[in-house]
Each structure stands twice: as structure tokens, then as C-alpha cells.
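Hi V.,

You were right to ask for the full record rather than a summary. Here it is.
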Amino acid sequence: MRSHEWVDQRSLAMSRAIAAKVREDPKLLGKALATLERWQRDRADGAPAVLQEWHCILEQWPLERILALLASDVEDARRLRQSSPFCGILAPEERLAILKQHEASRA
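Predicted structure:
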């Protein structure tokens, strides 16, 4: 069984890899925003507040602050990662490498 801490650390590793890619290509923020807007549109019964929180972050925060959030291990960052609109930013092989690394660290 995986601990919550282990899952959080794996999620943080993914988020840090995403931050590195976004730093290289800030236009990727547009992909995350498009994902977020699709999620909000698909939730006709009302999107969770965390999606609105992400929307404000992506629309209003400067790039460096967003990157710092993605790389942070504070409670708010952990909470936001659970609903991250950055899915699809990492290539499947990048994601798989992180998953394998964390699976190996569990052994």
C-alpha cells in the first residue's frame, strides 16, 4: 500500500517536471487554461471552487509565481495539485519515467 506522503511526493515530482517544461515554453500555460475551461464547461451543475481558484491563478499570477507554486510542497500547493489542469503537459514517456522512479523508490 502506498502512503499519502509517497503519493504527494510523486505528484510533486510530476509538478516540478511540468514547471520545468512551462519555464522553457510559457505558452503551455494556454494548454492548461484550455483544459481548465473545458472542465468548467463540462460541469454544468457547477464546477468545484478549486477550478475557479486555478482559473484565477492562471489568469492573474505572473509566470514566476505559477512556477513557484508548481514546485512548492506547501499545503496549498499539495491541495491544488489534486485538481491540476496541467495534465497532458508531460509526454507519456516523461510521465512514465517519473512513475517508474517513484515505484523503484518504494521498494
